[in-house]
Amino acid sequence: MIGKSIDRLTNFLGAENFNAEIIVINDGGWDKTAEIISAKSQNNPAIKFIDRKMNLGKGASVREGISAASSNIIIFTDADLPYGTSYFKKMIELLKSGTDLVIANRNLPVRQAGLTSNTQHPTSDIGFVRHLTHWGFGFLVRHLLHLEFSDTQAGLKGLTKKAAEEFLPSLKIDRFAFDLELLVKAKRAGLQIKEVPVVLETIGKSNISVLRDSFQTLKDILKIYFSV
């Protein structure tokens, strides 16, 4: 998967004639991921590989990737490119025009982006426990953290290096609530945030445990609440 994702990113950058780097972080994976990325990076100097032996979580990985980035425009996404590359150009345009942070939103009408899709929303066929957890998460996001965005967790976001430097040192959440902390701190800093409607292309394998990760996320939400 990661090899195909890197090839797809490389082809996209070449087709658009973008002078960019690809930063890949292996967050303590024990499969052949590191071997594949190392081989790709040897043939492409634009690929920066951070091979972490210990799993620290999404938040820790994104922070490290942002810190390692040399460009003023940074886009981060999941390794399986769940939303492809077609939205990158729109995000880059917004960031170049003065937006500080751009977030993907799966709930906005895709017609706003001139796109159509038959892809089923991943939360449309979930069990009762997961549905209840999803509802509770949304309630806390709206009423405790006061975030008005209908989708905070889509794995595609972009920001400027300058904006990141304003609040990156204050981000402490290492796991999945990282996105919430990012939005709360960006909003508190008065940064301009815009949303881009996206369509999910692929649903990768998830390591999320509803019960275990729900408790951790609840703890992290409370940490964010009391930190601001």
How would you portray this structure in words?
There is one protein chain. By secondary structure, the chain is α/β, with parallel strands linked by helices. It has a domain at 99-227. 43% of the residues lie in helices and 14% in strands. The protein is built from eight helices and six strands. The chain has helices spanning 2-16, 33-43, 58-68, 88-96, 128-143, 161-167, 178-188, 210-227, and strands at 22-27, 47-52, 73-77, 101-105, 156-160, 193-197. The strands form two sheets. A four-stranded mixed sheet has the order 3-5-4-6, sandwiched between helices. Strands 1-2 form a two-stranded parallel ribbon. It is globular and about 50 Å long. The termini are far apart. Mean pLDDT is 86; it is low at 112-126.
Short description:
By secondary structure, the chain is an alpha/beta fold.
Placed side by side, the strands forming the largest sheet appear as: 3-5-4-6
Tell me roughly what share of residues is in helical segments. Answer: 40-55%
- For this structure, the quaternary state is single chain
Radius of gyration over all CA atoms, rounded: 17 Å
Instruction: List segments where confidence is low: pLDDT < 50 over at least 5 consecutive residues.
Output: 112-126
What's the rounded overall pLDDT mean?
Answer: 86
Strand content: 5-15%
Order of helices and strands: HEHEHEHEHEHHEH
Distance N terminus to C terminus?
A: 38 Å
Question: In terms of structural class, how would the helical and strand content be classed?
Answer: alpha/beta
Q: Would you report the number of β strands? A: 6
- Morphology: globular
Query: Biggest sheet: strands, sense, closure?
Result: 4 strands, mixed
| Number of H/I helices | 8
